[in-house]
Amino acid sequence: MNSNHSSKLLTLLLATTLVVSAVAPAAAVVSVASSDAPSEAEVGEDVTATFTLEQPFSEYEEWTLNGATELEGVTWTVKLYDQADDKVGQESYDGQSFNHSLSTDSNANEVEVTVEGTVANPGNFSYAPPQQALLAELDQARDGGASQAIESWQFRPYTTESDEARSALDDADAAIADAEDSGADVSEARDQFDSAVSAFDGENFELATDLAGDAGETANSAAESNQQTQMLLYGGIGLVVLVAIIGGALWYRSQQDSYDKLG
Hints:
α2 (160-181) runs antiparallel to α3 (187-201), α2 (160-181) runs parallel beside α4 (205-262) and α3 runs antiparallel to α4. This protein is an alpha+beta fold and 263 residues long. It has two domains: 25-158, Sandwich (Immunoglobulin-like), CATH 2.60.40.3880; 162-254. The chain is built from four helices and ten strands; from the N terminus they run αββββββββββααα. The protein is 44% helix and 29% strand. The strands form two sheets. The protein has a five-stranded antiparallel β-sheet, with no helix packed on it. Strands 2-10-9-4-7 form a five-stranded mixed β-sheet. β9 and β10 form a beta hairpin.
């Protein structure tokens, strides 16, 4: 390859790289964390969670913070802190979503977002995977630019009845697994468990609890029956071995008696 051709190829590659760099948007770099976001909460319970965004202007000098939640009766509070941890701004918003404009003019070094609301009934319960609800989702949006997700948090909403049914299902599932590991036939218990799960998903939690209890009892009975069968089997084998030993001893003694008479 001659130097002319190499030079043209290098120039083309450089130009292409510059074009790609100019077109590709820079990824937002906003560090966010929460130490009190719940993993589960009861329907009707009041929940509060706080999220801290560090280095909010590491990429953009101006942008809009968007937030959304599936809680009800919601209040959002946005607080701004400078490098000395002094509060330099605060705004509150009502509703399941909010928009808050951010700018370097605020001298903010940290943004603290607090969401307060009541856990709503999810309306569709699921045993596996467990139903989830959106606690909070924070996005970064720029004027004329696309919105980018910063982070989102979910939790499992439950009622007293659904939690009791879930516990019963968990216990039954563990009992079935133990019985299966012991070699027992758990097909009947599995059928009962599947029916219990269907009842749970249909929000018939009382029936789900009862069926899960039946499944656990069936699994335990199968395990006990299998254990008794194994004990009888081992006992039978032991008896056969014992009879063989005694028979061998008697035969050996008879042979010795016969030898003594011949002598």
